[in-house]
Amino acid sequence: ATTAPRIGVSGGDPALRQALTQAGFVVVTPEEPELSAVLVLGTNEPALEAALARGVPVVCEAAALDFDAVAALLRRGVREVVPSPARLDDVLRRLGRATRRRSTTSR
Fold this sequence. Notes:
alpha/beta; globular
């Protein structure tokens, strides 16, 4: 039996959190232990710094056409970038990739 990925979510609206839960993720605060990934929505530098310091995959939001910002986020260690405004299908796809890659690299 596989356990549902635990995703620490910073920002976003309750509807997105509910949709993530319905998609099979366990949605918790980013400070919780044993996270599969952290999702940082909006521009929240302290939340992003804290998430990167956790050592788990980080998925965050950035302006789709701001290539410099996206490149800077990837250089800092962000695993996946969701185009802003974040759409559920984009968030699900990137969280899926981030958590799959973690499970294959943490063996």
